[in-house]
Amino acid sequence: MSAIVLDQVSKTYGGRAVLAPTSLAIAKGRFVALVGGSGAGKTTLLKLMNGLSTPTTGRVLIEEADIAERPGPELRRGIGYVFQEIGLFPHMSVAQNIGITPDLLGWPPGEIAARVDALLDLVALPRDVAGRSPAQLSGGQRQRVGVARALAARPSILLMDEPFGALDPVTRVALADDVRRLHETLSLTTVMVTHDVGEALLLADEVVVMADGEVLAHAPPRDLLAGHPDPVVADLIAAPRKQAERLAELARG
Question: Which residue among 98, 134, 229, 230 is least enclosed by CB atoms within 10 Å?
Answer without folding.
Answer: 229
